[in-house]
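Ops channel
N.P.: pipeline sanity check, posting one input/output pair.
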């Protein structure tokens, strides 16, 4: 029974020590969270940051429109390499655009790889 009471007393001391350590840590966290070093000058309001303005995006031609206008501006039609240079499109995008334009009937092939306005 005496041993049991000693163990309870030791547990009580340990728990009170731990609770004091927890209190110290919470105070340190509270001090760290508040801006201790920065105080506003008297008579001045803290400055607010200006809202970020987003640049308006310019609407450019769609891929189909870009390819179609490049073809319509040429008299004898354009080849794949010329279309890539004029439109700055990759081969996959250009191929897809030409396929869609031929299906719509706006463009046809004059010979292999040369596209002209219908």
């Amino acid at each position: 029974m005496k041993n049991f009471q000693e163990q309870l007393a030791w547990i009580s001391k340990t728990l009170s020590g731990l609770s004091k350590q927890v209190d110290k840590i919470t105070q340190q966290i509270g001090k760290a969270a508040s801006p201790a070093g920065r105080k506003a000058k008297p008579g001045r309001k803290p400055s607010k940051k200006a809202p970020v303005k987003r640049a308006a995006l310019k609407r450019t031609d769609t891929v189909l429109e870009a390819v179609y206008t490049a073809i319509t501006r040429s008299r004898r039609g354009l080849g794949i390499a010329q279309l890539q240079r004029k439109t700055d499109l990759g081969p996959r995008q250009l191929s897809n655009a030409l396929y869609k334009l031929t299906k719509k009937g706006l463009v046809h092939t004059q010979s292999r790889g040369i596209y002209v306005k219908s």
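N.P.: looks fine end to end. The first strand starts at residue 78 and ends at 79.
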